Amino acid sequence: MANKLIVSLSPHVHSGDSVQKNMYGVIIALLPALLVSFYMFGLGAVVVTLTSVAACVFFEWAITKFILKREACTICDGSAALTGLLLAFNLPSNLPLWIIIIGALFAIGVGKMTFGGLGCNPFNPALVGRIFLLISFPVQMTSWPTVQQWTAYTDAETGATPLALMKMAVNGDTTALSQLPDTMSLFLGNNPGCIGEVSALALLLGLAYMLWKKIISWHIPVSILATVFVFAGLLNLIDPVAYASPLAHLFTGGLMLGAIFMATDYVTSPMTHKGMIIYGVAIGFLTVVIRNFGAYPEGMSFAIFIMNAFTPLINTYCKPKRFGEVKK
Amino acid sequence: MKTFRIGGVHPAENKLSAGKAIETLALPKQAVFPLSQHIGAPATAIVKKGDVVKVGTKIAEAGGFVSAAIFSSVSGKVNKVDSIIDASGYRKPAIFIDVDGDEWEETIDRSTTLVKECNLKPEEIVAKIKDAGVVGMGGACFPTHVKLSPPPGCKAECVIINAVECEPYLTADHRLMLEKADEILVGVSILMKAVNVTKGYIGIENNKPDAIKLMTEKAAQYSNIEIVPLKVKYPQGGEKQLIDAVIARQVPAPPAIPINVGAVVQNVGTAYAVYEAVQKNKPLFERVVTVTGKSVKNPSNFLTRMGTPMSQLIEAAGGLPEDTGKVIGGGPMMGKALLNTEVPICKGSSGVLLMNDKEAARAAESPCIRCAKCVSVCPMGLEPFLLATLSAKKDWERVEKEDVMSCIECGSCQFTCPSHRYLLDYIRLGKGTVGGIIRARNAKK
Predict the structure, then answer these.
(1) Would an 8 Å CB–CB cutoff place B310 in contact with chain A?
(2) Among A26, A88, A241, B270, which residue's beta carbon has the most beta carbons within 10 A?
(3) pTM
(4) Measuring CA to CA, which residue among B315, B317, B343, B318 is closest to residue B329?
(5) CB pairs < 8 Å spanning A and B
(6) Up-side HSE of residue A197: CA atoms within 13 Å toward CB?
(7) In the prediction, which pLDDT does A159 show?
């Protein structure tokens, strides 16, 4: 008996939390938005999502096995599937298969595995894939099908997104903002856009789930949304004809998706609550700047990407408040 | 409800033996007394082979100011002064006594009548506590008389009694409060008198409503002792966390100690030991020990003589379960895994926890996903992931700069880590190494 006792250091119990639980938890939180996307974009959404997830999981498996030659298989941890899902959510529903597969290869291959796999990547892999595609295939990546063409895929009719209208307003088109759908339909997701980004409501449900399950803390999403609301609100007060209302900014484009699911990626966001707030405020600010004054109508991806690069710096300077620390 | 302000976790409580009254365990055949069962210098043996001792006979003298005397818990003959593997896993010098009968020293008052009156002066109280070998009963085993002798320039303002028992499974303090409430309260008032303060608090976690109710009723006759119910959160029994929870003051980083914010913290078991030492002339040679675990037949609380081998307690609780994979001295969060079950009960043994094969095995580590959960739960406001990484890289300079010495080794980070990383193993390595570097630096000055 005595010779088979395990001797290890404390603690001897564990909370039972695991990487899988967190990854699958995020995937569950994405389900409402996924269902809305199937309803809004039909067949196209199904094809793009399945392709992206399958391709990301395949590339992670293949790279781990044949290039890194690692024994342990990491696809079961759910992170590759999550990357695939998030990448799909950032693509239009009429994107051809081969472009999706290239995006998945870049996201997993360059964005993640090059740096050593899960936990080592400086940038959010799904975002790396999306930005690569946006720059490489600007035409395909910026023509969005209008909603509810259930059986259409690459042949779907496309339409202008609310963000495009908002950009036109900034550039001097005084009637553009009046063509925006009403706030309620923006909130529900009844407008053209990337697969997973259209419904603010569904994404907020996901946020509530993740907060409830303590998968993420409120600091990043709330600071991003609050900053966008305040900054866009100020611009709107200055010139309501050129600058859209803060609610229109919150409910359009990738803002909700980015704030709730992309910016909160564990690996690439800061480690302390103070740091998270700085990171969130900076993302919110950069997004509004790019949307209104940049070359692209959407600034969320770039804002997160830029702040990912600052995360190590934020971690170096934002320490948690130590117990018993006295303010100097 | 009050609690400490930074971090914390809530492990499954598993207080299996909470409803079991304290039973007196039979005497062992042989009792073993390691000479080093407290923080500080080991005690010096003052008996030799063949000496006859009684229950309560001093068998080892304190080895310095920060040290404590050791008393025999049995009557009989000294078999040998040798060594034994204790709860730390190291072989330590120890006195072995063969038990013969149960004859007590005459000076000990064995009656159960409550003695409330105490007319001793503070220094007389402290001397009596020192002479009885009383140490902190919560597990750290810091000699009690040292804590009751504030360094020059420091003034105690209150006594805080730690009745939190935040470790899962353990119920020894809980049962002691239910069965010895009056004695504990007298002990608390003696401690208050010893450090000359007029305010005493007893912090009890809210998962012991019966103890809170009983202690509140009994404390009504003491105008200056307040029962403070606390929200259940680990590691509330940490000295610094408890002070923060009860009086909302934070002890600064080491080398500062609780007395720097005016607090003297004592465990509830210590308060009882102080009562027995001062009012009943009874040195510290027995304590309540919880024997528990999911596969244990009868999880129990035993009043146990020091030196009893843990195997005897396990036997009394229904025997060692087939599937035992790990034997822990103490609770699951901070207890020590034992090499065998012959380890004797010492002054700081609050429990014996048996874990089955499945619970005992550690999960494999996976890469850090930088989720920052360890940072959120650290009750000291540290960054466990960073300390562990820097320790693994042996970058001691940065480990020190990142305040590793503030770590209280509560294990909340490792408990929470979704990647099952062995954070505290590395942090302990860092803390131990940096501690050595600091001592060497101070010695040079």
Answers:
(1) no
(2) A88
(3) 0.91
(4) B343
(5) 156
(6) 30
(7) 82
